[in-house]
Write a structure and sequence with these properties.
The chain is α+β, with helices and mostly antiparallel strands and 132 residues long. The protein has a domain of 62 residues: SH3 type barrels. A 5-stranded antiparallel β-sheet has the order 6-5-4-3-7, with no helix packed on it. It has a two-stranded antiparallel sheet with strand order 1-2. A hairpin with a 5-residue loop joins strand 5 and strand 6. The longest helix is centred in the C-terminal third of the chain and has 17 residues. It is elongated, with a radius of gyration of 33 Å.
């Protein structure tokens, strides 16, 4: 937020403190893939601990104490209050069918209904039946 001083005409920058501090447990912002269908969570499911930082850049470590090689900016991290994870299970659905595929499927179902069960014995007429 910028504050203008009417007397001098200068602009002062108001520095806001971020909510992330050393020792907090955080999640990392995931990169979003463009033009992908479905729900993708915004933050990773893994929880890390902030080891050090200067208010803008933070270095984090995993549960084993291994420090990640990259520093993350404050807006790439999300503070976590608890350790619960709420994952949404992906729903699998059949691909959409064209009208032709729908018609073929309906005809096959009709044929199966008319013919009856497959194990029923039927009289078959082969080529030798007509030659006798």
């Amino acid at each position: 937020m910028y504050l203008k001083n009417p007397a001098s005409g200068s602009m002062k920058v108001k520095i806001t403190k971020h909510s992330i501090r050393v020792g907090d447990r955080v999640r990392i912002l995931k990169g979003k893939q463009t033009f992908r269908k479905g729900y993708v969570p915004k933050y990773s499911s893994a929880i890390y601990t902030v080891v050090s930082g200067n208010g803008y850049l933070f270095s984090i470590s995993d549960d084993n104490g291994n420090v990640l090689g990259k520093s993350y900016k404050y807006y790439e991290l999300k503070r976590v209050e608890g350790t619960e994870t709420f994952l949404i299970e992906p729903r699998h659905r059949e691909p959409t069918m064209t009208n032709k595929e729908r018609r073929n499927k309906r005809e096959l179902q009709e044929l199966a209904r008319v013919q009856g069960p497959a194990n029923k014995k039927r009289k078959t007429f082969g080529a030798t039946y007509f030659l006798e």
